[in-house]
Design a protein that fits this description.
It is an enzyme of class 3 (hydrolase). One of its GO terms (molecular function) is alpha-galactosidase activity. The chain is built from 13 helices and 36 strands. It is an alpha+beta fold and 712 residues long. The strands form six sheets. Strands 6, 7, 8, 9, 11, 12, 14, 15, 19 and 20 form a ten-stranded antiparallel sheet that branches. Strands 21-22-23-26-27-28-29-30 form an eight-stranded parallel beta barrel, surrounded by four helices. Strands 5, 10, 13, 16, 17 and 18 form a six-stranded antiparallel sheet that branches.
Length: 712
Amino acid sequence: MNTIHLTNGLLSAVLHEDEAGTMAWLYFGPALGALDEGALAQSVQALAAAVPQAFLDDAIPCALIPTGSEGVFSRPALAVATATEWLPHLQVVGVEQTSALSCRIVQRATAPALEIVTELTLDATRPLLTQQHRLTNTGSEPLDVRVLENTLPVPTHLQEMLHFTGRWCQEFTPQRQALQVNTYSWENRKGRASHDHFPGLVLGTPAFSEERGDVLALHVAWSGNHQQHLVVDTFQPTRYQAGIGLQPREVVLAPGASHSGARLYAAYSNEGLNGIRAAFHGHVREHILRFPQPEKPRPVHLNTWEAVYFQHNTDDLKSLADAAQAIGVERFILDDGWFRGRRDDKAGLGDWTIDADMYPQGLLPLAQHVTGLGMEFGIWFEPEMVNPDSDLYRMHPEWVLQLPERVQPLGRYQMVLDLTRSEVQNYLFEHLDAVLSALPVRYVKWDMNRDLMHAGDAQGQPAYERQVRALYALLARVRAAHQWVEIESCASGGARIDFAILEHTHRFWTSDCNDPIERQMIQWGFGLFLPPEVMGAHIGPAHSHTTGRDTSLMYRALTAMFGHFGVEADVRLLSEQERQHIAELIALHKSRRADFHAGCSRVWDYPDPAVKVNGVIHSDQQRAHIVVAQQAMPARAVSAPVRISGLLAQQRYSVRPVRLPSVTNHLMKTLPSWFEGSTVLTGQQLATHGLAMPVIDPASAFMFELIAIEEQ
């Protein structure tokens, strides 16, 4: 019988093949140390479960892929069927462990006949595990695959969960609760990752926080329908299962055909949520993210949407570009409205040719004006969609995802093109390629503004899963043809955010909401899983068109400061004082973005929930940049000190305010004395007694930095 121990010195995963040939999880959690064969056998013995009364006579394993045939009565991780067979019994036929970090497990069943190859891999330097299955039909009949999910045991001391709901303009809304005996299920059927069911979950010890507690974070890398299940059982250890959400007969494998499930990422921390950030961010940077020019700083954006909306005019856009360049913008992105028939969102999608009425000389004069100012030129597309009021739809109404003789509901006045058709793929690639080849484009904002309904292919079969794979293929084709073009994943803001789409893109539009009060929480949830350099974060107008709130420029800028920074407003309308101020804030970001986008992102615990303290510590711990944001009225007349952990204990740091808070007569008469800029503290002092905080207005923020002092 095979026993597998994967470890990188930080994390251990132990699996064991039992006497029935079932590969089962024995342990997943903090590293067990180096175990020889004898010590590993003792672990197997120590973890052999008791058999309770009033149940089956043998212990039930926590199978790597529970099917129900081994005695698991809750949801199976594998559900398949032929015309006559429906309950497979998996048995191990091969195990290949090439190193301490990875293994390949092969299991087979005979009724129905199939093979599943599972790959488990530990990150070499981080407490992070990936898991993925590939299923092959080894029989002579078609095999209907209904469920293929990854399974992971959850350490029993993790008794509290954090998951995310949300909506348009309010993504990553956190929900926390204590675990009880139950099956918790989250199911997304919207065809994209969705605003309201981010494919991720966090489990931890009770009251886990940014800096404290054992935490396990899980993420399903899939950009469409998905399912997550947390099974808290009285007879078995708690387990997590997740994978692609499949419709009936959506994946029917012919003999010899294969299907790959979604990849699961699992990160473990005994340092609270900050350890999760470090694990996920480092893994994404090293193994997923592929910038065309890795050493190039992330350019400061100006996106035209909230500046002009659909009111396109070449002269106006040139003047907007002039104003953007004058304040330090480095990339100018032309948003929706540039193509034929596009005067609002009711027409034109699918007709990806430049509107000759709006642009009699085409887009080249504008693009050349932008590049002549020293900025890069970017452009918006929504390739997956079509308006019924378009030449494309009038010519090819059969090209949309739909069911015969069924009314296809519109979303944002548009329908979804069937990317599984080769003729649709070719049409889209040719039109995107024509624009990208004719213009000096270095950036594409790739949008997707509606959920999928009645997503049937040309034969009327469900196509949700194949639509996602076709999208990946189209993105890969565009990237191969235009290797210097960066692509942003946008889906009504944050409705398609996951590691899988990031393999084909370079940045996310985090939310259509630029209101910094909403953005503080949205970006907090995003930042648990993804590093700041892929987080689109812009300074919007003073008056937010999505919330109706007015906020200060400083608060908007400092909320966006650590992300992929930009502006989404008509900067021509700013006063001279405002233009100077925003130029200074852009210069501030540029001067420190190398640290922001390569350092260790952290959030610090603070007793007032209305205060958010977040920042970045440089990898050598010689510098740190910290923003304190006051979301609502302070809880106390005198705010508690903020304690900054994560620095070198004996290193002395100069404490320097970068952007000062306002001194207001109604909340605060004077600033704490350290704002004079002459305070020097050790890392241990900063982590223990910390720094006195000012008492500031709601919707305001300030920034300070810590710089290591070289000892003489």
